[in-house]
Automatic annotation (TrEMBL):
The lineage of its organism: Bacteria, Bacillati, Bacillota, Clostridia, Eubacteriales. Belongs to the alkylbase DNA glycosidase AlkA family. It catalyses: Hydrolysis of alkylated DNA, releasing 3-methyladenine, 3-methylguanine, 7-methylguanine and 7-methyladenine. Residues 47-198 form the HhH-GPD domain. It is an enzyme of class 3 (hydrolase). This is DNA-3-methyladenine glycosylase II.
Length: 217
């Protein structure tokens, strides 16, 4: 299943912004997979932190092959050592186990998150061990399919903004200007900025200042 959007969102963004309109026209419709199961999505995102997409996919496949369905019962039945054997760190295995315990005990109302406004959902999710604000935002976008997610902490979105709008740096004030411009369809704008950052639009370059080589002392 892919993130659901259509003509209404792209027409709105194109009308609001000429540069975004050009990116949309060149990139076409973007298909990004979503995982609508909240428990599985949280675990998947914890697994994927600070590792490559390929490594994340390898670990996730091992978990799916072993468990079938990645749920709290499967995680608790496996234990930390078994989780580590899939290729994740001890700390991540602990985070995932702690999360599963909170779900099983009813301490954390996962399905209740679906009823929360974005800011509340992000605050509650980022209160879990191993889940920061960026991870919570990605869960809102790629699991809950919230339409207006725009993550300041996402380096690829910042890169996309620099490339599309020829900025050298994206500070919070400038970022919020774009958030207001793209709202209420920031999630779709994010998809296109990720595409731009990944090279989907020929001719764009990153305007960030070149890093000076460190002097050897």
């Amino acid at each position: 299943m892919y993130f659901q959007y259509g003509e209404a969102e792209t027409a709105y963004l194109s009308a609001r912004d000429e540069q975004m309109a050009a990116v949309i026209a060149q990139a076409g419709h973007i298909e990004r997979e979503v995982d609508t199961d909240l428990f599985s999505a949280v675990v998947h995102h914890i697994v994927g932190q600070q590792i490559s997409t390929k490594a994340q996919a390898t670990i996730w496949k091992r978990m799916r092959d072993e468990f079938g369905v990645v749920d709290a019962a499967a995680v608790l039945g496996a234990g930390v050592e078994k989780l580590q054997s899939f290729g994740m760190t001890f700390r991540k295995a602990e985070y995932i186990t702690d999360f599963a315990r909170k779900i099983e005990s009813g301490e954390f109302d996962l399905e209740g998150i679906r009823q929360r406004p974005d800011d509340e959902a992000i605050r509650e999710l980022s209160g879990l061990k191993g889940v920061g604000v960026w991870t919570a935002e990605m869960i809102l976008l790629f699991c809950m399919q919230r339409p207006d997610v725009f993550s300041y902490d996402d380096l690829a979105i910042q890169r996309g903004l620099r490339m599309v709008y020829h900025h050298r740096k994206i500070d919070r004030k400038l970022f919020e200007k774009y958030r207001r411009r793209f709202s209420p369809y920031c999630s779709v704008a994010s998809l296109y900025l990720w595409a731009a950052a990944g090279g989907a639009v020929p001719g764009l370059k990153d305007y960030a200042p070149a890093q000076k080589p460190k002097r050897k002392g």
